From TrEMBL:
It catalyses: (9Z)-octadecenoyl-CoA + H2O = (9Z)-octadecenoate + CoA + H(+); octanoyl-CoA + H2O = octanoate + CoA + H(+); decanoyl-CoA + H2O = decanoate + CoA + H(+); tetradecanoyl-CoA + H2O = tetradecanoate + CoA + H(+). GO terms for molecular function: hydrolase activity. Pfam families: 4HBT (PF03061). This is Acyl-coenzyme A thioesterase THEM4. Belongs to the THEM4/THEM5 thioesterase family. It is found in: Cell projection, Ruffle membrane; Cytoplasm; Membrane. It is a peripheral membrane protein. One of its GO terms (biological process) is fatty acid metabolic process. PANTHER family: ACYL-COENZYME A THIOESTERASE THEM4 (PTHR12418:SF19). It comes from the Bacteria.
Length: 210
């Protein structure tokens, strides 16, 4: 049982645009925080100002991230997803497109907040990006599901601060199970991470709109 309810408020266009802008500023703030050379006193002063801003936002707090109206299925309306959601400051965010033949593609650059080994992307972040891309490829078959297995193979370090590509495609559907694979590649075209995954449409969602 989750502490976050399933029922969601739906944002109008103006509010969605304003909150998207807010998330972009908070994303910049996160990067500024990990890179700042401000001294202790300045960092403490800025922390106090941010605490005041957080209190302003929390004054009207929702119980769950909101949705937007476009899209027939719930996953199309979810704009606070941690990989692709423009409303989520934690998300890079990565724009992922699905071609008519079911291939998911995205281009993205990851900054210092996603660092694992010095100057390279954290392996868990790469896995998260691939989980999302492969999940979208699975959903494109018409059988959206939850990740049951995700296997990643880290072939070489994934560089920060340069344009990366992610690509994914489903290979087969067996009842409620969908198998998919994908890669992240560096600007030189070499694959840095490969992934295979199996998604299962939960029995409880078979008759719902998920
Ligand atoms: C477009 C959006 C993209 C989103 C991408 C990101 C997606 C996510 O992050 S999802 C979050 C992470 N995943 C989860 O939290 C999933 C947690 N697990 C579950 O909810 C359930 O175990 C779930 C949905 C995987 C399967 O549940 P359920 O529908 O009850 O399956 P169940 O009836 O027990 O089993 C069905 C079949 O799957 C198999 N199976 C179930 N779970 C697994 C598993 N983890 N690994 C391998 N096989 C499995 C069973 O053995 C059974 O096989 P068979 O048909 O051959 O007997």
């Amino acid at each position: 049982m989750s502490a976050i309810p399933m029922e969601r408020p739906v944002l109008g266009d103006d509010e969605a645009a304003a909150l998207t802008g807010l998330a972009a500023r908070v994303r910049e703030l996160a990067e500024a925080t990990v890179l700042t050379g401000a001294g202790a006193a300045e960092a403490a002063a800025v922390a106090d100002e941010i605490a005041a801003l957080t209190a302003r936002l929390t004054a009207e707090r929702r119980g769950a991230p909101p949705f937007v109206t476009p899209g027939e299925r719930r996953m199309d309306r979810q704009i606070a997803n941690p990989v692709s959601g423009p409303l989520n400051p934690f998300a890079p965010p990565i724009g992922l497109d699905v071609t008519s033949d079911g291939v998911v593609r995205g281009e993205f650059t990851l900054g210092a907040v996603y660092e694992g080994p010095p100057s390279y992307v954290h392996g868990g972040v790469s896995a998260m990006v691939l989980d999302q891309a492969l999940g979208m490829a699975a959903a494109a078959t018409g059988t959206p599901g939850m990740t049951a297995t995700l296997e990643t193979r880290y072939r070489r370090p994934t560089p920060l601060g340069v344009p990366l590509k992610v690509e994914a495609k489903a290979s087969r559907v067996e009842g409620r199970k969908v198998y998919a694979s994908g890669t992240i590649s560096a600007p030189d075209g070499r694959v840095t991470v490969e992934a295979t995954a199996m998604f299962i449409m939960p029995q409880r969602f078979v008759t719902s709109e998920y």
